[in-house]
Write a structure and sequence with these properties.
Number of strands: 3
Number of domains: 1
Helix content: 25-40%
Distance between the termini: 62 Å
Largest sheet: 3 strands, parallel
Number of helices: 3
Shape: elongated
Strand order of the largest sheet: 1-2-3
Strand content: 15-25%
């Protein structure tokens, strides 16, 4: 069986890619999404809301991960950073 990357898929899939982290974490999934889109699939990348323009520049759909305020507050308290940038001991 011969495979050609330009062969349209037998059916169009709706694919959602979830990623978190920095640009270095999001960018590879955008590249994957671009390839899947070129293959004829519908691709949405879900990431932190500040990556919307980054994801959309590749022609991909975007949905934001938006944690609740209470969740963000709990994470900030758990990972409190002192003025020197070092994690404070919690106990």
């Amino acid at each position: 069986m011969t495979f050609s990357p330009l062969t349209p898929p037998s059916r169009k899939l709706k694919i959602t890619i979830l990623t978190v982290g920095s640009v270095g974490d999001v960018q590879p999934y955008c590249a994957l999404g671009m390839g899947l889109k070129r293959a004829g699939h519908e691709v949405t990348v879900v990431a932190n809301e500040n990556f919307e323009s980054f994801v959309r520049q590749f022609g991909l759909e975007f949905a934001a991960i938006t944690p609740s305020d209470a969740r963000v507050s709990a994470i900030q308290k758990r990972n409190a950073i002192d003025h020197r940038g070092k994690a404070q001991a919690r106990g």
